[in-house]
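Hello,

Our lab assistant flagged a job as stuck in the queue for most of the afternoon. It eventually completed. Since we weren't sure the result was trustworthy after the delay, we are filing this so someone can double-check. Below is the sequence as submitted and the structure that was eventually returned. Let us know if re-running is recommended.
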Amino acid sequence: MIVWLNGAFGAGKTAVARELVDLMPGSTFYDPEVVGDGLRKLLPRKRLEEVSDHQELPSWRRLVVDTGAALIAEVGGPLVIPMTVLRQEYRDEIFGAFAARRIPVRHVLLHSDETILRERIAEREAVPGDPDASECVRRRALDHLAPYRAALGWLTTDAHVVDTTGLTPRQTAAQIADAVRDGAGNCDIVQTPEPTAATLAAGVLLFDENDRVLLVDPTYKPGWEFPGGVVEPGEAPMYAGVREVTEELGIRLDAPLRLLVADWERPQPPGFGGLRLLFDGGRLTTEAARDLLLPGSELRGWRFATETEAAGMLPPVRLHRLRWALRAREQGRPLYLEAGVPAGPLDASPLDATLADPPPDPAALPGTAG
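-- returned structure --
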């Protein structure tokens, strides 16, 4: 089990985590900052200069999970992790990867009013004996208060909140230990096993009366997605798409689905790639859309989006696939893609010429295997 202590910089996560380890027999303290320190020594300076925070590195997010899983295999018992994560897509990627390894996560938010946080930051000597370095840390903590305020909407919904105002680290840890024993903060995320070979996946595009496409927001990986999933062994791909729509949205599609796009996704370690199919599921009436039922462990939301709106919601690889699928729907004929680019002769006159550019390298993108 993972006990993930989240909160603003200066919330006292590390001090509380060390106290919590004392109160939870068999638990181990794990600070992912160690992973960031390692990457700062290993990665080329040019790559490090491209990001403002090591959490932006896909390698950091992967290694945090891999290291955590290795620690649990080595020592057993729960891991107590003090780490600020304010971007929900990073939460989804990290917690979803733990779930794929069948490691449950308890998400706890240490919260205080901003006035209290500012007082704590001002009093903090982050680097003993080095006033300049301590001041740099304090400025960084103050700079993160605005992002923390912006993230409170999803944090307070996702995590068990502990108000630390007036509490010592020991008292806070005692509250968390009691809450964890009672099951608080449990992140109910579908346990989707990581692929061990190339996969075949079927997605379904559903439209409203204005031809906007329905997108869903997974809890276990970053970015929005199409309804659908991996085709099970021996299962027909079209049936897999129908099954996934029923399981994810509570909708039964009776008419045969029309294939729009078959896209071969090349393997990019650590991903295995495979074939991605997109089918046309037709239009949903307003009444049918109102009756959508989402499995909370897998999807947290849905919405209809125009192609322009989808550009700000989908990871680039899935966006590229969607754009070709929409053109195939307009033309009334399926398209075969290899790595997101049509293969073979193609009458491109009615198509958006910008789509002929190759998609971004999937190796640089998290969660693009679906």
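-- support follow-up --
The delay was a queue issue, not a problem with the job. The result is valid. The longest strand covers residues 274-283. DSSP finds 13 helices and 13 strands in the chain.
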